[in-house]
Amino acid sequence: MRHRPSATWRQATDRAFTLIDDGRYEDAGALLTRAADLEPWLPESWYNLALLHKFRHDWEQARAAGLRAVALLDRDTGAPDWWNIGIAATALQDWPLARRAWQAYGLRMPAAQAAAPSDAPVSMALGSAAVRLSPEGEAEVVWGKRLDPARLEVLSIPLPSSGRRWGEVVLHDGVPHGERVAVDGGTFPVFDEIELWAPSPVPTWLVLLEAATEADRDALERLAADAGYAAEDWSSSVRLLCRSCSESRMPTDDGSDASRDPHDQGEPGHPGHLSHRSPGALWVPERECGIAAPAGLVRGLLDSWVADSPDSRDWRDLEEVC
Predict the structure, then answer these.
(1) Inter-axis angle of helices 43-55 and 80-92, to 10 degrees?
(2) What domain of life does the UniProt record list for this protein's source (predicted)?
């Protein structure tokens, strides 16, 4: 029979989460360990410890506490304990446990995954989403492709201040903080990054372009994509948002293609767009562009772009920034 936790357990737990909010993880850990000693039969004791270890990125401990929590559950599927185990298992590349966790939570695994070797990475085509890089610092929301419930491959070119690169895979949390809404009504969740899961060897470059028209700019983005890399007009694709707006239900700027929608940089104020968005007659030829490409390829890409239309295109001041 389950009993209500003691008042001492509740007080220790409440105090621990106050300390977690203040970033005092060590002190919170001592209180949550005490709570687990007081009520070891309570799944919430171990769930709370697993959550703390997730905040600390101590994945071995998060996995161990999470497994103790689910062993005490009185329901088969849907418990958030399993989701946290899925994140910890993904961080540790414990793929058998990750599959078990997602299925226990209630997610359907693709047939190909059911037949895959147990040590093969989880692969689930979950569509596009956005991720907030460095959510506790100079946050930036970028677009990417979800590889499974806890990983996203970054497809935008992040600003150099983020320390992230195009093509990197980040581990993200399970509860979205915000949405981006397309003109057609499609919605895309915004997840918070937990940590870098797989780095990218592809550097980020900043270059100043002279592009007479939007079509000239688009041609460089296509040329980079055809080469297997990326170019992004930061003059158009970056907007500044306050934290409240960034974490709310925000419309995309063009809504036509989520992968090309502006990514956002969080600011305490609300200054609007970082740069001009100047279609048609208001187009400004000088553009700040980010390029993700190897050092041996980037100049050739730019020169090829100019060679296709030398009267309307030029570039200067190429610099590796991340």
Answers:
(1) 40
(2) Bacteria
Q: For residue 311, with 0-12 CB atoms within 10 Å meaning exposed, 13-18 middle and 19 or more buried, which class applies?
A: exposed
| pLDDT averages per 10-residue partition of the chain, 322 residues | 81 96 96 96 96 97 97 85 97 96 91 76 91 87 94 96 95 90 81 97 98 97 97 85 58 50 49 34 90 98 98 97 96
Do 322 and 163 touch, CB atoms closer than 8 A? Answer: yes
Tokens in use for 61? 């401990």
Q: Where in the chain is the domain with CATH 1.25.40.10?
A: 7-107
Please give the pLDDT value at position 266. 53
Residue 86 token pair: 């899925």
Using CA atoms, how far apart are residues 174 and 193, in angstroms rounded to an integer? 10
Q: Are 306 and 313 in contact (CB under 8 A)?
A: yes
Buried b (16+ CB within 10 A) or exposed e, 41-51: ebbbbbbbbbb
Rounded to 5 degrees, what angle do the CA atoms 209, 213, 219 make? 70
- Measured between alpha carbons, how far is 139 from 318 in angstroms, rounded to an integer? 25
Give the CA radius of gyration of the chain.
23
Distance CA 285, CA 179 (A): 32
Give whole-number Cα distances, 167 to 41, 198, 201, 214, 280, in Å: 44, 9, 9, 25, 31
Tokens at 140, concatenated: 């930036």
Q: How far apart are CA 73 and CA 110, in angstroms?
A: 26
Parallel, antiparallel or unpaired: strands 151-154 and 140-148? antiparallel
* Residue 298 three-state SS: helix
Q: Is domain 7-107 classified as CATH 1.25.40.10?
A: yes
Residue 32's pLDDT is: 97
How far apart are alpha carbons 263 and 132 in whole angstroms?
A: 9
Q: How many CA atoms lie within 13 A of 255 on its CB side?
A: 9
Q: Which of 123, 128, 238 is CA-nearest to residue 186?
A: 128
